[in-house]
Amino acid sequence: MKMKNLIWSILLVPILISGCQPAKKAVEESGVKPNVVVIYMDDLGYGDLSSYGATELQTPNIDALAAGGNRFTNAYASSATCTPSRYALLTGSYPWRNKDAKILRGSAPLIIGVNQPTLPKMMQANGYYTGVVGKWHLGLGDGDLDWNKHITPGPNEVGFNYSYVMAATQDRVPTVFIDNGNVVGVDPNDPIEVNYNENFAGQQTGLENPELCRLKWHHGHNGTIVNGIPRIGFMKGGEKAKWVDEEMSGHFLKLAQQYVRDHKSEPFFLYYALQQPHVPRTPNPAFVGKSGMGARGDVILEADWTIGEFMKTMKEEGLLENTLIVFSSDNGPVLNDGYEDDALEKLGKHNPSGPFRGGKYSLFEAGTRIPFVTYWKGKIKPQESDALVCQMDLMASIAKLIGVEAPKNDSQNQLSLLMGESKTGRENLIIEATSRTAIRQGDWLMIPPYNAKPVNEKVNIELGNSLEFQLYNLKNDEGEQNNLATSNPEKLKEMLESFVALRGKDYSKIEKMELK
Question: Which GO terms describe its molecular function (predicted)?
């Protein structure tokens, strides 16, 4: 793998950028506040990019970011599922500290407190215009939602000046966009109703009307049919407000492009949260069949193209020299996550998890070790880092970049590492997967015992559960095949002490695993 990465870096680095300055010093000398853009994908695995070892898929636009910036090989999402990772990214706090930071229904209330410090609030208070475009999935409102009226609290109440989002996921109702708290296209003569407990009378579902589905459900996705796709949950009304799945990626792209054009004359923060390759995978017709791997491969290619188009806009507007761009994914990959879309059947030799074990929902490495790239033209030299870092660290790191004090939370200032000026990262990190936690410290990973099933058969992913302690040296055994808990009791003791000191003794209290 190391030789492959060396060859990759030699072949892909198109331009050596010279004259890089330490980030904070450069900002102070110029007097210009840098923009920050976070491009966040959904269920993208470590092995899904050609810049991270994929040979069956080519992702040239994301590769260009990696080749021109700092490509991290030991970077982690905070969780192996979406909502907790997004919570940690925006709050700088471990998701397990919030009992509500778990996979949410589309009708769930907002899980970020309106008085809680957040990354966008911090930037907003220091002269930044802040925006979010794409997937939200952190809850809306504070109880019973009326989708036909202004929705609050939401993204705008936790630090975003501008928000254009979908409430949860593409496979969940309501299948509508929300523009600054208002459903786009809402019609008072066709009010929207949402229920996650029971269907509305006369509404067709995937369970009762499978013949109406153009995409067959495998598990969980047998609720209301929208655009021929059965969803999770039940929805009635809102016909004019419903999105067109195949147009979603392009729609979000246009909004992200317009956002940077509109705010190029002031410092801005953009959280650009793509929906791919989460299910349902609905590539634009221009990308159907392009990957040869079915819809999952096609939407990854579409996302790569989308990011390329966004970067063209950044270049055209003269923004690349004053913008820190961070690219990553919320958790690891999954193939069959509820629909029969040939993701498994057409996989071929492609391995979305790369060299790692597990995937989405898992405490094994593929659940949380994800692609992570920082890019800043003229400031970050092309390089690779194997230092330990977490997406949660963006809050403290950006605080350092813009010269403000970071809130007290779990985020650590890793600005020098992100900028390629240091090789030292975190000492340790707690990772989470559906309320279960483990610790990464140095080259080691320790998973405590969990009395839960080792494999989720529906998605065919090892979850990392065992009745015994698990201890792996990831430097020598990145595939986690050799459990050293018995043969190295001293290291196990050290890891357990660190884990309990950080996590507490109640770590074994876990909830029933919930897919999606």
Answer: hydrolase activity
